[in-house]
Design goal:
476 residues; 2 domains; Immunoglobulin-like; Thrombin, subunit H; eight-stranded antiparallel sheet; seven-stranded antiparallel sheet; mainly beta
Length: 476
Amino acid sequence: MKIKTLMASFAGLLISSLLSVSSSAVTFPDIDGVKQGRVPYLVGLWTVDSKTNARKDLYCTGVLIDRFHFLTAAHCLDIREWFVAVGGVTDASQRGQTLIITDYELHPRYDAKSFQNDIAIARLYYGVDNAAEWGKFIGNYPTIPNNDKAFRKDMRLFGWGLKQNKRPSYVVTSVPQTEFKSEAGKAFKTFNEATMLGAGFWYPSEKLYAGACNGDSGGPLLANESTNPTLIGLVSYGSAKGCDVKKPTVYTRVAYYKPWIDRTIAKMKREWDKKGIVRGSSPSEFSLPAFSNRFIEGEYDKATSSQATSVRLSRDPDAGRADMNEMMLQVYSDTIGINLYLSDRIDGCLLRQKGYIHVQVATNSFQDIDFEFFVRPGSGCFRNESSFRVYEVETPPKSFSGDCSIRVNPFEASQGAYKSDTDIDALSFQFDTRCLGKATQIWVRALIEIDDSKYEADIEPGNDMWIGPLNPKGRG
């Protein structure tokens, strides 16, 4: 799918003023390690390395309100870094399921200084119950009431943030919350009772509040979470000193924004339809869970003693000439081939001179990058049925001292005669099977960019996402 501008400025997380700073994690939680089944609709927001396309740091929290949308704080998405949403886990040591975001919108009157209207909504490319096996366990998504006053009892905060003294948590924590409206009004000059809610868990003997801290921003304040989860608030900000437990946490009142949420969901849907975005296979067909012991199914060819696994990908008009609609893994006795198929034919000279291709392979269930290669812009043209070598290969296994250079074979895969020998719509990258070491399963990700006046790009299946697991040993 096209590389979206999913970027955010850590101004919201690092800003310091006399009034407040955005909050991150739960201080003094009464549940330190919430089970995933208790809040399956919780998501974590991670920054992504723009060079490797892999996740880096967990920095905010969000909450799914239906199959296609999640809410978070506006300051969580108002950042200048790539980011992704991850669901299906409450322990950061587990990989979980990366959710492809196709669009997001901050409230139009969001103010980064006062944290007024600190709410944002994001739309997912695939519905959750199709994107992840854990989706079927979600059951009821949190509902948004028209008025939250009747629900301000039995409230509980969930989040990924730090604990007291800024100690990392690495797991979702939780603590009950009680409304402290007057205390929040006295503590924060920007507190607005109409759009915000002040809450905490008061320890009278210690004279402190348990509440949100760094990393909890955007996290849900829920009522009746064990029976009929009702979304009351989203973590917005706290004390300017950080996780100062002498002041309550300020939440964005979600009920106040229900009309805006409904309008924005409808608007995103209309824009989706107007663009003509067509989703390909559901993620369960091209990306099994990282812990899966199955492979994406392939076909064995007795004549060539090879196995080919083909995966159909989504067609995204925003990706333009770089759009990939299929990827194939070919396994022979001593060679592995990764084929990328473009949605339309392209001038091979343009792709060679203005194109940038980056292919990555992971061989472990946490999907770290174990093998990757680059084709950077150069002179000449990609020609149908031609071949050349790429020597820019990184991180091959230390156990293999042989040649891990990549043979690049451009070709025309579509039916019908091509106009010239530089008309191509596919690229095959072939390398020695030993370049993957003793890998028993692999995941693949590919990026194509065309850096001309139009600048078109496609990363499949997406930032921090992979196709697989695929069988690098062929038939088996």
